[in-house]
Specification:
The protein contains eight helices and no strands. By secondary structure, the chain is mostly helical.
């Protein structure tokens, strides 16, 4: 899978992030990852609460909540297997910076499409990070685990883009997505230095 063709991300993660940062603190990575999955489930629940009239969205988000919480449980299982303890929730500065790009106001359609594209962006970068982890981490179990999750995140990314295109009436989703990609490329330049999924 090529990030350039599938995910359209403009700035790839340096594989040295795994060797120089992640491998020295697997416990921190796993704690952060667990909370990323939990936040993804919370985001899907928020989309249901805000859009209960959109039947297809509600159905897809309900399934997504189950899948993300299953991932949370699986990461927690790995934490326990390795004799670690789930730490406190970590602040995700990357996601908080991405959130600033969401249109505030501007009507329900604009808010919905931006929320879906914001979600797609997080899934796309998570997918790319999982790919880098799976290919570079010196740990067979985690390599296989992150390869599996990479495929899953790519599916989620595609789903959010598809839903955005389904519910967009006035908004050019491709144009707005290009703007998100450009903004994300600026944001991600400041990351890749900590042992977190988006760090």
């Amino acid at each position: 899978m090529s990030e350039k063709t599938i995910l359209k991300l403009q700035l790839p993660t340096d594989p040295l992030w795994v060797k120089n940062v992640v491998e020295s603190n697997i416990e921190e990575l796993l704690t952060d990852h667990a909370f990323c999955e939990q936040k993804a489930a919370s985001n899907a629940i928020t989309l249901i609460v805000q859009n209960p009239n959109l039947n297809d969205l509600v159905q897809e988000m309900a399934l997504l909540v189950q899948e993300e919480m299953d991932h949370f449980k699986r990461v927690h299982d790995i934490i326990l297997q390795r004799g670690f303890v789930l730490g406190r929730e970590r602040k995700d500065n990357y996601v908080n910076e991405l959130r600033k790009f969401i249109i505030i106001g501007g009507g329900r359609e604009a808010q919905l499409i931006d929320r879906l594209l914001f979600s797609a962006m997080i899934e796309a970068r998570s997918c790319e990070r999982f790919k880098v982890l799976s290919e570079n981490i010196d740990d067979t179990h985690l390599s296989e685990f992150y390869h599996e999750l990479m495929v899953s995140e790519a599916t989620h990314y595609a789903m959010f883009i598809r839903l955005a295109k389904k519910y967009a009436v006035e908004i050019d989703v491709d144009k707005r997505w290009a703007e998100f990609l450009k903004y994300e490329a600026q944001v991600i330049q400041n990351y890749g230095k900590s042992e977190t999924i988006h760090g």
